[in-house]
Specification:
- Helices cover about 65% and strands about 10% of the residues.
- By secondary structure, the protein is α+β, with helices and mostly antiparallel strands.
- The strands form 2 sheets. Strands 3-4-2-5 form a 4-stranded antiparallel sheet. A two-stranded parallel ribbon has the order 1-6.
- Strand 3 and strand 4 form a beta hairpin.
Length: about 300
């Protein structure tokens, strides 16, 4: 083997320290800068317009940012020349004149409809999104507590927290818009990271039952070696798909794609490093999976 068991253990410890450091930095970014909540959560104005098919999203974005003095989300409506514009409610509380704002675009502007999403609706979406995230986490914790002994399950739980916090910290640090599509990506990351962690944890349990006297460091290294190729192939193919969404999906899918891309990489990383080191620190061994003798009642 090119990498000895001892070196593999050192690498796992080193990468775990890096993971914990990045997680602490992500928590710091969340505490200091917070998330840049999108219009889905804060409320705003949605306007649908019809323009010449020759007008591009870049032209619209540049003109609207200049005219309205704020970032405007420009989304194609699936029909040539038809666009959906999303922007924050101005301080005066009235919708701006989009036709006037786009007067210099060189095309006839036809405003099809305008609707206002109030802050109350945004607050309800935020509460529902948080509730969905909480239910997902509770279901995962319940499953892990049933499937594995708590020392082995602790690694999977910590890996899940690491992946989600890292993604949230990235969005806090870059101040990219956090909207419903990004929240959907966070929920997807929970499931993806759990899948990787369970595969490795299952292999660890099998080896502990078959070789109860084997040191836990060697058990973890053997389990990682047995599942490494499968993990890399799965993560690689998923990253290719997400990368295609990132490159070809445009603005509406950018946040989702970036969150998924980061989540898949950190999920693979944490399942191998954090997910195996924590059970070692809790002194997991084969005795925890040995059947206890049944004592007969007198």
């Amino acid at each position: 083997m090119l990498i000895t068991m001892k070196n593999a253990t050192k690498w796992r410890y080193f990468t775990s320290v890096v993971s914990v450091t990045l997680m602490l930095l992500s928590i710091g970014a969340l505490a200091v800068k917070g998330l840049n909540w999108g219009l889905d959560f804060t409320g705003g104005i949605v306007t649908e317009v019809q323009l010449s098919p020759s007008v591009t999203s870049h032209q619209l974005d540049t003109q609207l940012d200049k005219a309205l003095g704020q970032d405007v989300s420009v989304i194609t409506a699936g029909e040539p020349g038809r666009w959906v514009l999303r922007y924050a409610i101005p301080n005066q509380g009235t919708a701006p004149d989009i036709a006037n704002a786009l007067a210099d675009i060189g095309s006839k502007v036809n405003v099809l409809n305008t609707s206002i999403v109030g802050p109350q609706v945004g607050q309800e979406l935020a509460e529902q999104g948080g509730l969905a995230l909480l239910i997902a986490v509770l279901c995962i914790l319940g499953y892990l507590s049933y499937r594995f002994e708590w020392r082995l399950a602790s690694g999977s739980v910590f890996a899940l927290a690491h992946d989600v916090i890292f993604v949230l910290g990235f969005f806090a640090l870059t101040q990219m818009e956090f909207n419903l599509t990004v929240l959907a990506a966070v929920l997807a990351i929970l499931g993806y990271s759990l899948n990787d962690s369970i595969i490795i944890a299952d292999r660890i349990r099998e080896i502990l039952i078959a070789k109860p006297n084997k040191p836990i460091q060697e058990v973890n290294n053997e389990a990682i070696a047995a599942t490494f190729s499968r993990t890399m192939v799965t993560s690689g193919t998923t990253l290719i798909t997400v990368g295609a969404l990132w490159l070809l999906g445009g603005g509406p899918l950018e946040g989702f794609s970036i969150a998924m891309f980061i989540g898949i990489m950190t999920g693979t990383w944490s399942s191998i490093s954090v997910g195996t080191v924590l059970p070692e620190l809790f002194h997991l061994n084969g005795e925890h999976y040995m059947l206890k003798p049944v004592t007969e009642e007198p």
